[in-house]
Write a structure and sequence with these properties.
The chain is an alpha+beta fold. The chain has four helices and 19 strands. The strands form four sheets. Strands 2-8-11-10-9-12 form a six-stranded antiparallel beta barrel. A three-stranded mixed β-sheet has the order 18-1-19, with no helix packed on it. Helix 2 crosses helix 3 and helix 2 packs antiparallel against helix 4.
């Protein structure tokens, strides 16, 4: 009898434990469901779809080349007496860069001038001997005048004088245009080498950007299009320019060479590697932010807002730039989105069809 009572008490205790465990498990499941299910609507930002001007952007890699580049050298031998600039100096057109010792050159010019004066006297004597006045050579026939100039040695003396004067003048190197001095390695009091470049002047204001585009991108660019050049060494800066040449040959890799003039503002160096962004206005089109497009099962989807609910629309995008893309209309297997529709721009990553949403300000 006592054993039977123990069994009844044990059975009641097991029932109580099972009931308590089930109650706790139920509470845990309810709490988990409450945690998973969102308590608020999806927060999104929107904009109204309407046609607007689309600026297409094409990105390429290129290299900066100086628009003006001159290798300067002395045209006569001599000792370098003065160097007035150094590498990296900005110079103006006509500014003095360096010069040779001119003592021998000036002496040579003076001797040539003296020889020319003597030849001129000889020329006058020849003309007088032929019976022509020396004060008005216009009356002397051309063939007689040429014969007299040759016989007197005037022609040879004049050539020697002009050469001596030219060498004296060109013993001073002048900047041919505004630019920056480069490749200057000579020192004063050393002999100038006429076969080697003394220095290089790089025109830093009008730089050229050489880059390539794909053959199928040719319809998207033309001469005059705006470009923005950004050096990889300074990604925060950008220099504007425009396309001036499109080479009409496609190479074996399907690329076309393009050249653009760029205002480097004196901060671009010849040989710099740069990123080139070509901008061209393609007129008014349906344009949406890239963030408005999401992928569902490998297809492009844009959500529109209808009566507080997100509506799922299959679309096809066309051209794009860094932030925006165009919508291609009239394509089969896409939904019709019209002007004036409200497009969901952000907060659409986890949206479902006809999910309730709440609009927030940008």
């Amino acid at each position: 009898m006592r054993t039977q009572n123990y069994r009844n008490l044990l059975y009641v205790a097991l029932l109580l434990l099972t009931a308590c465990s089930g109650e706790k498990k139920g509470k845990t499941v309810e709490e988990g469901v409450a945690t998973v299910l969102p308590s608020n609507d999806n927060e999104v930002t929107i904009e109204v779809l309407k046609p607007r001007v689309f600026d297409h952007e094409l990105v390429s890699n290129g290299k900066v080349v100086a628009g003006g580049l001159a290798d300067l050298r002395f045209e006569t031998t001599g000792i370098v007496s003065h160097i007035y600039v150094k590498n990296g100096d900005y110079v103006r057109k006509g500014q003095k860069l360096a010069e040779l010792d001119k003592f021998r050159l000036k002496n040579k010019t003076a001797q040539a001038k003296d020889a020319l004066d003597r030849a001129k006297l000889e020329l006058q004597d020849v003309l007088i001997g032929q019976g022509y006045p020396v004060d008005d050579t216009s009356k002397v026939p051309a063939d007689i005048m040429q014969l007299a100039r040759t016989k007197s040695g005037y022609e040879q003396s004049l050539s020697q004088y002009e050469l001596a004067k030219y060498e004296e003048e060109h013993a001073t190197l002048l900047a041919p245009f505004d630019g920056v001095v480069a490749n200057l390695f000579s020192k004063p009091y050393n002999a100038a080498n006429t076969s080697e470049t003394f220095c290089t002047i790089v025109g830093s204001q009008n730089m050229e950007a050489d880059f390539t585009v794909l053959e199928n991108e040719l319809p998207l660019i033309k001469t005059g299009d705006k470009v923005v050049v950004t050096p990889y060494s300074d990604a925060a800066s950008g220099y504007e320019g425009h396309i001036v040449q499109i080479n009409p040959i496609v190479d074996d890799k399907g690329m076309v060479k393009v050249k653009a003039f760029v205002n480097g503002k004196g901060k671009l160096f010849s040989g710099m590697n740069v990123r080139v962004n070509v901008h061209r206005s393609l007129g008014k089109q349906f344009v949406i932010p890239k963030s408005a497009v999401v992928l569902r099962s490998g297809k492009q989807v844009v959500f529109t807002l209808k009566k507080g609910l997100a509506r799922w629309n299959y679309v096809q995008t066309g051209l794009e730039n860094a932030d925006e893309c165009t919508l291609v209309t009239g394509v089969p297997q896409t939904d019709k989105i019209e002007e004036g529709d409200t497009i969901i721009v952000t907060g659409n990553v986890n949206l479902a069809h006809e999910a309730p949403v709440r609009i927030i300000k940008n």
